[in-house]
Design a protein that fits this description.
- By secondary structure, the chain is of the alpha/beta class.
- It has one domain: 3-Layer(aba) Sandwich (Rossmann fold).
- Helices cover 41% and strands 13% of the residues.
- It has 7 helices and 6 strands; from the N terminus they run E-H-E-H-E-H-E-H-E-E-H-H-H.
- Strands 1, 2, 3, 4, 5 and 6 form a 6-stranded parallel sheet that branches.
- It is globular.
């Protein structure tokens, strides 16, 4: 199974990066996880030529080729970082590779509560018509006190959180396999969703 792990921040010191790196190593016998950075991707600004930057196109191609996506998001002011929201806007603007793509949301924070509000908000965003990702339901991984959560080798030191992560990742692998069958049987719906436009959905556009 090939997965893409997106570090949902442009911070150089984020523990969400450490979480994805731990997952890549810990689950290496179950899946190949490529950790992708977004800190080099420019802020979303609709280009005049309607061509996304090369960095965006490269990320979209990796998402399209992957069996699933893991997004590790911090929580800033009760929501996801602006850098992550900008990248998602680019993704919805281009080839829309997240449509019907299985997504697992995880998050680490310095405080006690983890990233619960940001994860809830991200679920809402990923359900937008131009995104329509298939987010693993009823499961969230919240890593609090993340500054002390990793040792010098990058291992997650909270044994109960390791067990929790293992259970969620096992569930996500099954979710990916089930979704692959659904998409195979209903491929036309994926193409219809990718053709969505707000112009056609507006009052001046086509009517249902």
């Amino acid at each position: 199974m090939k997965l893409i792990g997106i570090v949902g921040t442009n911070s150089n010191t984020s523990t969400n990066r450490k979480l994805l790196q731990f997952m890549r190593q810990h689950f290496s016998d179950q899946a190949e996880i490529e950790v992708c950075e977004i800190k080099h991707i420019p802020a979303f600004d609709e280009p005049e030529d309607r061509q996304a930057p090369a960095e965006v196109q490269e990320l979209c191609e990796k998402i399209a080729a992957a069996d699933g996506v893991v997004i590790a998001t911090p929580e800033y002011d009760h929501t996801i970082p602006a850098a992550l929201k900008s990248v998602i806007e680019w993704i919805s603007y281009t080839t829309r590779p997240l449509i019907n793509k299985p997504v697992l949301i995880v998050g680490a924070s310095h405080g006690l509560l983890g990233t619960s509000r940001a994860q809830a908000h991200l679920r809402q965003i990923l359900d937008a018509p131009e995104l329509k990702a298939r987010v693993l339901p009823s499961s969230e991984f919240l890593l609090g006190h993340s500054l002390a959560a990793f040792d010098e080798e990058g291992n997650l030191v909270y044994a109960h959180k390791v067990k929790e992560l293992e259970e969620i990742f096992e569930e996500f692998q099954l979710f990916v396999k089930i979704n692959q069958q659904l998409v195979k049987e209903h491929h036309f719906k994926t193409e219809q969703n990718k053709a969505f436009s707000w112009e056609a959905a507006s009052w001046g556009g086509e009517q249902a």
